[in-house]
Amino acid sequence: MVAALLLLLAQPQIVTQELPDGRVGEHYDARIEVRGGREPLRWVGEGLPPRLVLVGGHIRGVPEIAGRFVFIVEVVDKEGKKDSGVFVMVIRRRHRAQEKKMVGPLERALWWLARHQDTEQLGGERGRWDAAGFMRRCGVPACSNPRRVQEGFTVGITALAALSFLNSGSTHKTGRYAATVKAALTWLLKQQSASGWLGRLREGGLWYVRGWLLNHALATLFLCRLLRISGDEALRRPALRAVRCLIEAQTPSSAWGYDGESPNIVVSCVCVMGLREAQAAGVKFPKSVFEDAAQFAKTCLRNDGSFAYGGSKSANAWAGSQTGCLASGVILLRLAGKDVPKGALARLRGIKVGGKIDDMAAAWLLVEALRLVGDNQSAVAEAIRNALVAHQKRSGCEAGSWDPNDRWGDVGGRIYATATGALILAATQKKGKSR
User: Fold this and answer.
1) Long-range contacts of 300-303 (CB under 8 A, 24+ apart)
2) Rounded to an integer, what distance in angstroms lies between the CA atom of residue 408 and that of residue 330?
3) What b/e string do you get for 31-49 counting C-beta neighbours within 10 Å, with b at 16 or more?
4) Would you say 197 and 243 are in contact if contact means Cβ atoms under 8 Å apart?
5) Is the pTM of this model over 0.85?
6) What pLDDT, in 10s, does the model give residues 192-244?
7) Which residues, 6 or more positions from 304, have their beta carbon under 8 angstroms from its beta carbon?
8) Looking at the chain, which terminus has fewer C-beta neighbours within 10 angstroms, N or C?
9) What CATH topology corresponds to 100-427?
């Protein structure tokens, strides 16, 4: 009797008999439980629904076709012993109400981001967006991404993606994507050090990048804006600590730059965006911080109305984006409470937009600058929006996202491209129009 029981337990046995229903367009993940068998186990699926895969005992993916599917699952252990079974899965149509909500380009982008937010499965960390490994959340075929995405910016990329939901009407407590924002917030707060830094990297450490301050600046912007919008006092202490670090990082030149470099207009702009949100949320700090930052912006202003990048070693990257530098200078001056010179305004309003956006980050800063000067519904903003919508992916797992083909694609991948795309769409959204 005992020997028979041991023999039974020695070979793998599929215990699961029924699988939950799925829905078109929604991420599906169901585990098939197995008892016995010597690991590692090998799984084989025959006749699985389109876009679903069998990995490590999990059937996952994003189904695209509704219907009733009958398929076979087989598990084989280390010694070649096996078990198999026939399963039935029903994939239902997308909710009609959801289909209506999904018609707009902004909603498609948010839906893509929500589906590709990390979970604990397959080595993920719940709440973050992994620019290099988000494909673990994909269906088949998986979304494309640059072959190598630079590590070290996960905090900043996660904050950027979370900001797109916040700017579109969801907080960690309200809105359609409240669970998405809450998961991102929880993960980001876990990354905050005892002194308050978010995503600070030490030189010589694993994944060190000189531009790590962007991690902290973007996370501070998200955290403080969430505090202002939600009024959740539980966020005040983390926001206060983040602001302290941001002010501590202000250089003797009264601005901010990459680690070990002189200040630059773009990083300074993002830092001031976060500080202005902090002030609006009631976080107190010296007003001279804005005065000093505005003074730096004025030193970058050229006679023709453009703005110099500043910086040193990294100048070749952002200095090549005159649009990004111009937008950053305008944002910085406006948020510091200063008038924008007429020459800079004329340049901003006269920017020519092609049929394709070749710098998503600069385009986001540009529409933010236009919004601050009251031109977010201008012809320039409309041209940016139209070019963006024209190149949004419409099919497969990539539907709703953008290809990361600009200068920052190797830094943030498809997550970065889609997060900035969503931010642009949110900033240029006309009232009463479909998102």
Assistant:
1) 300/265, 300/325, 300/329, 301/329, 301/341, 301/344, 303/343
2) 22
3) ebebebbeeeeebebeebb
4) no
5) no
6) 999 999 988 776 555 556 788 999 999 999 999 999 999 999 999 999 999 99
7) 343, 347
8) N
9) Glycosyltransferase (1.50.10)
